[in-house]
Amino acid sequence: MSTTRTTATPIHSQFLERMSPRAFVPEALSTAQLEQLVDAARWAPSASNKQPWHFAYALRGDAHWQAFSQIPNEANRRWCLNAGALIVLLSNQESSPAKHSFDAGCAWGYLALEAHAMGLATHAMGGFSADEARRVLNLPAHLLPECVIAVGRRADAATLPEDLRAREIPSLRKPLNEVLSAGAVPSAA
Ligand SMILES: Cc1cc2nc3c(=O)[nH]c(=O)nc-3n(C[C@H](O)[C@H](O)[C@H](O)COP(=O)(O)O)c2cc1C
């Protein structure tokens, strides 16, 4: 199977170039970089413009880093602790009961593409302890931890443990015609 990303329509190259690596250079992001990422994310559209998101972060090595590093699960901790920052993306279930997760997901997409434009890489993780996130961040009940995001400068795959090295390649996608239909949706969708 080919691992080169190509497509037939003239989409912006950022969509093909962005990927979620596991190898990160172990250096801290700056506060300015972190703010730029979240600034892009907050311009995402949301239902009734509720903006039901919040970003809690730790920069590598800062006063919060140790506590944040306990939030990802064991499998993700193997690689994500080299990242330059860890961000916990929260959605506000109270302000947008029906669309909080959908809107937070869009904000994550914006953040990921801004990171790519800045020469940084991101990797979202659903594998984390929500209980630990609640404890570390002292979360009120209406804020739902959606995912943890590792951000940083990409490192050579050789820096990874052997079993993770092979996975450091761009993933492919289902064909366009499998996810797109004119009119009624096929039963296989
Ligand atoms: C909400 C969400 C949760 C994810 N959880 C994990 C995770 O726990 N561990 C992991 O290694 N990758 C995780 N990923 C990364 C996906 O596996 C990855 O985005 C997908 O395979 C597509 O690859 P790409 O981002 O490189 O294009 C997650 C991605 C998203 C958006």
From TrEMBL:
SUPFAM superfamilies: FMN-dependent nitroreductase-like. Residues 17-153 form the Nitroreductase domain. Keywords: Oxidoreductase. Pfam families: Nitroreductase. It comes from Comamonas guangdongensis. This is Nitroreductase family protein. It comes from the Bacteria. CDD domains: TdsD-like (cd02138). Belongs to the nitroreductase family. InterPro entries: Nitroreductase (IPR029479), Nitroreductase-like (IPR000415). The lineage of its organism: Bacteria, Pseudomonadati, Pseudomonadota, Betaproteobacteria, Burkholderiales.
